[in-house]
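To whoever picks this up:

The parser on our side crashed when reading a file containing two proteins. I've narrowed it down to the boundary between the first structure block and the second sequence. Both blocks are reproduced below exactly, byte for byte. First block:
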Amino acid sequence: MAQNSPLLRVSQSSSPSVLVGSTSDSSSADHSASTLLQPAPSHHYAVEGFFEPDRTFPEELDRIPSGSSVLDAESVVGDFGRTYHQFKQGRYLLPNDGAEQDRLDFQHAGMTVLLGGEHYLAPVSNPKHAIDIGTGTGIWAIDFAEKHPECQVVGSDLSAIQPPNAPSNCAFVKDDAEEEWLFPWKFDFVHLRFVFTCFNDHRRMMREAFKSMNSGAWIEYQDFPVTQIGSMDGQMEGSALQRWAFSVMTGMKTVMGRDIDVVANYAMWLQEIGFVDVQEKKLIWPLFATQEMACSGSPAVESQCPLPFEFRQLLQERSRFKERSYMTSRNEQLPLLRDSAVDPYAILLGDSMIERMQTTGQSASLDIWPSETLLSDISLQSLQQSSTTELRRLPRVFNAGVGGDKFENILYRLQGDPERQLPGLVDLLAPYKIRLWIIHAGTNNLHPKRGLSDASIGSLCLLLQIVSHMAGLRSRVLLTGLFHRTDIEERLVNEANAKLEKLARAMSTTMTDTSVVFIKAPQTVMRNVHLVDHVHLNGEGYRLWVETLFPQVIDNLEQVQVSRVDVATARASSIHRT
């Protein structure tokens, strides 16, 4: 997946930019150019040799988060414990904490690779004063100051999160670039990177920069339009990620009154303000790892695509320790997963209804599923007669069911428990290409008088979001319905299943390209016939369940395969047309 990041260079009457070119305007002042990074449709541009399959991953990106950060004492605490700037509070939407500082430093490393080891493209010569707007951690300003010891460099930001040990020719100020610039000198170089979310009025900031620049100075923008996320083969057209980008853009405009679809206007605005010789260069900015990169275990990939911080925080808040969950994970499931010579193909996740497939159903974990006890060969042949899809038992199905688990206990197993040295399934399963998740949970969340609470649905929603994130694009998550039982009214079970189905449908249309499919419990399973106690299925109950479930599992896998074949065909067609 790639984001096209163009570079626009502009020469101006007082505003610099990356990518050479300087001319004189009618007032005879030489104004240098600026480079704007903004993506365009990827199929229009190609950058030879960048991240080609036969090349090693750039060393600059082979890093992990530092774990260190600079605290702005005036920060305020927001949602999920993240901190935000207090100065001009609300002007900028992203956090300023350690996790964000690591992201900014990684972003800087990525741009350095993208620019061939450089930090800018403007033909800056012997600058005396330079400024980095929205400097963040100050890493660009520090690098520029070290490269130009004769230049006085200023890094400006709403947050004071820059290190105290910067070079003597580098200083940082807490300032708002949309307000009047009051510096006692004029600048030879103004640098801005990824600022499309930063300003209510970009033209006002440009005018302030223009007034504060020497004749022949350069301004350089490196930015990309959030609405032009795409892929070189067109796969992402109409994807959930594109829809998300438009949702973010709409939300920013509605909630903050800020238009972030602005990058395509930079060149025009700069020219209107007085910059001359404006030029643009487009580069490809990879947003996601390829399969080869993802399988390499590179720290760069791990730091680029972790489970989102908010999910980690919510996991910590919503998960609940249970002795049985901990002991089963530590002593049985995790050793089996780590010591196995085979990779899991699909995951069974949930409570005792899943766990007992191994005992009542005699279907061993990481073995063929379903076992002949769950689904005999005769039954399989009978099902095949009424199916247009070839029904084959699945290989390497990992059983991650634990009896008594509520949604909160399953979240605990996903997260793990560092204090008890228990790895989480999120991290252990990350390296594998899981084709399918089958989830049965909620049995133990049902209240005998109130049914399934909204709080429980919230925990299930988080569980499905996390599993969907792990599953990735064009994978399936199957959520199975709850069975009627002898200790709870049928009405409450039916209401609970209606909530589960509604949640699955909503997530399939709004979350990601991972489909969440609800599969109803078979009506042939009767609580007065097919239970061994108040809730658990007997052998015949499991056979009836799997006879209904298995064909739908295969059908969903087939749909995933078809979508992948369609993609391959589209690629082939485009090659032939070329």
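<<boundary where parser fails>>
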Amino acid sequence: MPDRWIDQHVGDESRPRPGFEDALASDLHREWTGATRRAWLRMGLAAAAVIALIAGSVVWFGRSDDRVITVDSTPTTAPAVIDTTVDSVVDTAIPTSTTPAVAPVAYAVGDSVMLGAADLLVAQGIVVDAQENRGVEGTVDAIRALADAGSLGPGTALVVQVGLQSAFSGADLEFILASVPGETLVLFMTVHAPVDWAAANNELIRDVATPLLSTARLIDWDTAAVDEELCPDGIHVSCDPRAGERYVGLVMSSIAKAKAESTLLEIPAEPVKRYVVRLAEGDYLGAAQLLGEGGLEPAARADLRPLFDPEFGLLPGQVTTEALAAALERWCAQALCVSPVDLQVVDGFNRAAVTFDVGGVRRTSTFVGSSFEGQPMVEGLPLQLPAGADLAATVECPISGGFERGQQTWADLDGDGWWELLVAQMIASADDESGVVTYRVTACGTTTRVEPLEITGDGLAIYPLNPMRSGPDTLLIGFLEGYPNGTMYQFDGARIAPLANTRWDLGPPLVGFEQMSVGCADLAGDGNVVIVNYTFTETDGQLRYTARSAIVDGATAEGQLASDSDEAARIRLGSCHDLPVRTD
């Protein structure tokens, strides 16, 4: 099982916020930065190409030797038909027809390996940009060129192969991913070469090219190439036609499989965001994780659309409180919320509040008039309830009282597959300067009755952990300042109760502008997921990561995770909600 990660910021609130926190973050402020959003968006890996339509011909530019191959794009027979049947084993047999498709099947960017199969790829309708000795910067340049030309976006499929020339670092891969438009279906190829860095590069690629939180898919050429007759260097496919055909066959069948599985290609007009897919699937949490825009649809209705649908939406950079209220008004006119929208000032924050009528039961959500990258921050979400639930019997959600007084997160406490909303309210504070606060954690938006949990400390942090989204969530609850230890909790049918022998420690105090994150990773690759924390800082616009400690079955295991930036950056791209977490 590859390492996966969800980054949840738990830094000092008094410091500037160079890092990021997702919609699950248990911090008191729910801010996101541009780096944060790119961290989610960068999981859509990309390919790029240059295409020109000249006198009815598709022109492919192979940069390594200044060749320009022109292929007649007027089909004399029907274009090649790709079987999109999804099988357990990807078929690497190349289709027999070499007649190019009228429209590109996909775009591809690669190095000398892809260059050796470029003629065959072009014949299958793929627009290829392949160049010898291409590294990270050349790949990014090609991606940006295609993005600037408007060729990437919803409904497009892209292939990228890079990593032959030198070793990746986490920052290098992040640089590539940040150049990719978010709605692109991407297939990232591993490399096969007898060089020292190939295995590490492939591990990075395999970790990132997963459908967990992105559109990226994997084409595992490294595994497929083991049985191929490659050139004497053990790398290239140009010496034996069969190797090139198998290479292209793997690419084509992988594209067909990814398209068959992807819902992104069914999304019509841009600029519909990827989180629409999550909302359509009823996955509010996934939507919030992707962009932090919040899931705006009550599960009882399927006809509500997000605020950023072009029909209702705001443009990036235009999210003032007044503009947000106006957008909500337009949205409410065709939805189930009650107008007029109530503009509020709560604890100095401008907010637009709207009430949703869900099956005759009204719920209120508040939307903050500030933004990250033009998207609003959302404090309250409409309820998500199972079909047939008794809406009148749901527990009302208390108002948290402002960012400084409470927080919200989501967890499936009873294991029924539906989220409960957890609201933590500050109900008492110490008279001295210790910063110790008593919080009451209430489960609401559910028909499940949960006895409130009262807990005392400084800087409450709550992390929901879920074993493969099966059974009840485990809650990792602790404090950030003065009381760095925490405990795992689970719902026992009546209350949120602590589990035995599951204490964890956030480690030594933060220094300077360090921020801290906690998440899950499979360190040994054996399926046993442990909790890891690490710090991150921002230097010259780049996030740098340092791993600290891991918790295995409740015991801190120092040294299991290398304390270096690349390792921590590599494993943070995952989710505790999709990994088994041992707590016994």
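After patching the parser it read the second block fine. Residues 241-261 form the longest helix (21 residues). Residues 175 and 542 are 10 Å apart (CA to CA).
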